[in-house]
Structures are given as C-alpha cells and as structure tokens.
Write a structure and sequence with these properties.
With about 260 residues, the protein is an alpha+beta fold. Helix content is about 25%, strand content about 25%. The longest helix is centred in the middle third of the chain and has 22 residues, at about 85-110.
C-alpha cells in the first residue's frame, strides 16, 4: 500500500511504502521523472544495525551477481554475509534486501537483474578510476534501485542544474563543473531511503556505457532506446563521518516494461 507522497524534492518524489501488498510503481519507467525516493517502512535496518554490519565486513567485501535468478541471488547474499555477520544482524539486513529485490522484481519483471553489495573505501574508489563513487555519471542500466546503508547517501543533481549538453556525449564527468551549472548545488539521498533511478540506454550511446551493456547483455545485443536525455545524474556519497560506505544496488538492463 502506498502511504502517500510525503514531499516533492526537486523533481524527485518521495514515497513511504508499506510493502504488504507490494506497491505498484510500474508506471515509473514510462514517466518523465528521473528518480523516486522510497522508504521501506517494514523490516528496515536501524542505523545502529547498519553501522555494526558495515564495521563487521572486511574492507574488500563485495558480492556481485550477474545473469543469476533472484532465488540464487538471495541465497548467495545469505551465504556471503553469513561468513561475517552474527545471526541477528544477518537477519535484519537480509529482510530489507529481500524486500527490495521483491519490489524491484515487481517493477521490472526482470528475473535476472545485476546485483551488487559492497563496502566502498577510499582505496576502492582510487582503484576503480574513474569511479562512479567519486564522479557524476549517468547509469548504463535502464533502472536501478540502490541504498547506502552506512555512510553518506548518493549525491544527485536537480534537472535544472544538470548540464545535459555534456551528458549527451559523455557518461561520466571527471570535473563537477562539467556536470552541473552550479557544482555547489547538489542533493543527498537520506541514509534511511532507497532511490529508484533511471539510467540511459539507446543506440549510439557513448563507448564507456556501451562497454557495460556489452558485459551484461552480450556484444551485439539489441534493445530499444530508454530514457535518453532523462537519466539521473548522480555519484556516490563522500567520506565525511565514516571511512567506508556500504552500498547495495540492483539494476535492470531491460528497456521494455
């Protein structure tokens, strides 16, 4: 049941969702909105639990699932996390992750999404250069649902502050001044919320994003254009009060919903 629109935040709507039954956000893919913020009321991991989870995982922790069905992904997350977490923390985190996976599946009907759970540190960011955790970018995926459980949430630009001319030909900006007209004007996703956001997939997309699509779908895969010129421009949060971030993402490379 959708509890209602709580606020309107710079073209990114905020919903509070009670996931019994699963809410209908299927129309989002056809809307002009670049993103929506979502609050999973039930089974939410507390701030203290999120901190304990993040500090219990090793610096190099990551779990990535490509071309696997959701039942395999859920079991894989459980196996991977159980090596590091006490049962109480494991159960709390898996409950919210499973709810998010189910919600994403109801929106996309994608049975084999790309899923990632990882600890992001300063060392990780430098190794991944140019890192989407550091630089504004548009996703290569059509739709992504993501949450930062620990650390600062993702940073995004309002549409009126986005330099679309730059992102018409580039998927990542190594300088914030290329991405935004006012690089001091940015929005941060609250730690308690998920964000469902659009990337861009279309014929003739830049080489960097095409390379990602080729990895996920295979070289030469055919797909219809999706959200061209409408993807949310965003980047990972900063290391302000923490030396790490714990980030979960689930993405679909389907372009027909």
């Amino acid at each position: 049941m959708i509890m209602g629109i709580l606020e309107s935040n710079n073209s990114v709507q905020v919903f509070s969702l009670d996931l019994l039954p699963v809410p209908d956000l299927s129309g989002f893919s056809k809307s002009t909105d670049p993103a929506v913020l979502i609050d999973l009321i039930q089974e939410k991991v507390t701030d203290c639990q999120a901190r304990d989870v993040a500090l219990s995982l090793p610096d190099n922790y990551k779990a990535i699932f490509l071309r696997k069905d959701t039942s395999f992904i859920k079991e894989g997350l459980k196996r991977s996390l159980s090596e590091h977490l006490q049962p109480e923390l494991l159960g709390a985190l898996l409950n919210e992750l499973y709810l998010a996976i189910n919600l994403f599946g109801s929106i996309t009907l994608d049975e084999k999404p790309l899923v990632s759970l990882r600890v992001v540190t300063a060392e990780y960011v430098e190794k991944e250069h140019p890192s989407v955790s550091k630089y504004y970018h548009r996703d290569a995926a059509a739709l992504t649902l993501t949450k930062c459980f620990y650390g600062e949430g993702a940073i995004y630009l309002r549409e009126q502050n986005t330099n679309r001319t730059y992102f018409n030909v580039n998927s990542i900006a190594l300088n914030d001044r290329d991405a935004a007209y006012d690089d001091a004007d940015c929005q941060v996703v609250p730690q308690s919320k998920w964000i469902l956001l659009k990337g861009e997939m279309y014929k003739g997309i830049d080489a960097r994003n095409q390379a990602v699509v080729d990895i996920v779908l295979g070289e030469g895969a055919q797909f219809k254009d999706f959200a061209k010129g409408n993807g949310l421009i965003h980047k990972g949060g900063r290391f302000i009060d923490t030396d790490r971030r714990l980030v979960f993402t689930i993405s679909s490379y389907k372009t027909e919903f």
